[in-house]
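batch job 7 of whatever, protein = AsnC family transcriptional regulator
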Amino acid sequence: MTTKLDRYDHMILDTLQHRGRITNQELAEAISLSPSPCLRRVKQMEEDGLIDGYVALLNARKLGLNLMAFIEISMDKHTPDRFSAFEDTIATYPEVLECHLITGQSADYLLKVIVRDMDAYQQFLLQKLTRIEGVSGVHSSFVLKSPINSTALPVD
């Protein structure tokens, strides 16, 4: 079920996605709304689950995380237990930024992984990923450049 949003709600969501640390006063001014109704709207969208939370976006390169890969994973069995065990295990690996169960490919999962360098990737692959029970195939693609890298969702 989707929540009915008006233009102020759209402006609030768009602004918060780009300026998460904005004060309520600044947000209200940015969207031309009084602070009290602005705050009520934000609180309501938080309660409704439209706003999951607030985070700081870190600079991966400045943290020494220079290698990003997309990894297609094939599983040996397509059972709920096998998928659940894989998902529980992969969720414990901090290198994994995203994990998606996919269709339309020869793979079952698509992972987005970030590590320091190729040596760290090799260690992740051989010491962690391929040791998960049920993993029968791994295909890696390495990111050369990210001309678009956004966390903002289209809210218009």
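notes: The chain has a mean pLDDT of 96.
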